[in-house]
Design goal:
Elements: E1 8-17, E2 23-35, E3 42-46, E4 54-59, H1 64-71
Antiparallel strand pairs: 1-2, 1-4, 2-3
Length: 76
């Protein structure tokens, strides 16, 4: 893996039913993903693997609150 910041994050995603009967989704961060230099693949570093649920890879973007803080000159 390169020393660059990961471009994607890996999550375990599970669906569950809340006590009020509402369908909910739980996202647990379990790893980071870096593209290969040739752009034809990825290196994935996982801290866990799903035994239930699914593994989801998403682009690493700041959450809206983090984006607002950075735009205002604060620390992320």
């Amino acid at each position: 893996m390169s020393n660059n910041k990961p471009t994607h994050r890996a999550f375990i995603v599970r669906n569950y039913q809340a006590p009020n009967g509402e369908e909910k989704t739980s996202w647990t961060l379990v790893g980071s993903v870096w593209p290969h230099k040739d752009g034809k693949g990825f290196n994935v570093a996982l801290k866990g693997i799903p035994l239930d649920g699914r593994l989801v890879i998403r682009v690493d973007e700041p959450k809206p609150a983090e984006a607002a803080t950075v735009a205002e000159g604060g620390a992320p």
